[in-house]
Amino acid sequence: MTYVLAIDIGGTKLAAALVDEEGSVLRSGTRPTPRTDVMSALAALIAEVTEGGPPPEAVGIGCAGPLDLATGTVSPVNMPSWRGFPLREEVRKLTGLPTVLAGDAQCFALGEHWLGAGRDSASLLGIVVSTGIGGGLVIDGMPLLGPTGNAGHVGHMSIDPNGERCECGGRGCVERYSSGPNLARWALDNGWSPAPDEQADARALARDAAAGDPVAVAAFERGARALAGMIASTAAAVEITTVVIGGGVSAAGKVLFDPLERMLDDVAGLAFVRAVRVHQSTLGVHAALAGAARLAWQRT
Ligand SMILES: [Zn+2]
């Protein structure tokens, strides 16, 4: 049996695993992401997962963005100590193995396509809806990364060129409508008030929407319509058959997915766009690690 080493790097957690060609995990480990000297923590985690085990053949890394695949460097928003950090080269030097890198949302899409809700689909869009909105495309089974690795930034597709200014500098981005903080912001602006012991976040909003609070329901419908516009546009551009949605906001379940289905039915026109099926993530927090393993296997 042969293995690859999969690594998932986020602002709060580092994860690594030895994964075989079927996607089975032999050994795995996690540790919190330190504020400084992340590379030492990563090296210790890699040692913990690989020492005494079968030697892996390649390394696949999913990392929070932004990143630049042309240079193999990363500058994760939530990891201030890494700016233009040469992650691919550092891991290649550390392990002596062929090393491939992609964004964490791209690895999410690849993982769901390989082992999750998008299994057996021809072409897939994976969307991570949480504090922001990330995405990744898998076309004919292969990840679409782009020259610098930034393909799939669907959170910053404009669904309203006359809309509000986004933090990215663009206007009318879907993230401005459908991310967790923006769902809660719109609801608060429109008279929603969470229970006194609750934080005014998307989780509380989802609970209130499920209980029938009209403003909370309207917030999810508005967010779902923006997502539907983005999904229909992406489908028209690259002919995806399947969409898988993960991230914290996807845990809202029916209050997000039911209106999304209705809005997509309203927004989509062409038959191949109307045929797109939307699913909730089945791998959850493990999707990106699975995708990182798949990335490594595809390059071996
Ligand atoms: Zn934007």
Q: Which features characterize this protein?
A:
globular; five-stranded mixed beta sheet; alpha/beta; binds zinc ion; 300 residues
Widest sheet: strand ordering: 3-2-1-4-7
Which residue ranges are poorly predicted, with pLDDT under 50 across at least 5 consecutive positions? none
SS elements, strand count: 12
Shape: globular
Averaged pLDDT, please? 96
Largest sheet composition? 5 strands, mixed
- What are the secondary-structure elements, in order, as H or E? EEEHEEEHEHEEEHHHHEHHEH
Q: Ends: how far apart? A: 14 Å
User: Gyration radius, to the nearest Å?
Assistant: 19 Å
Indicate the percent of residues in helices.
Answer: 25-40%
Structural class: alpha/beta
Helical stretch count? 10
The percent range for strand residues is: 15-25%
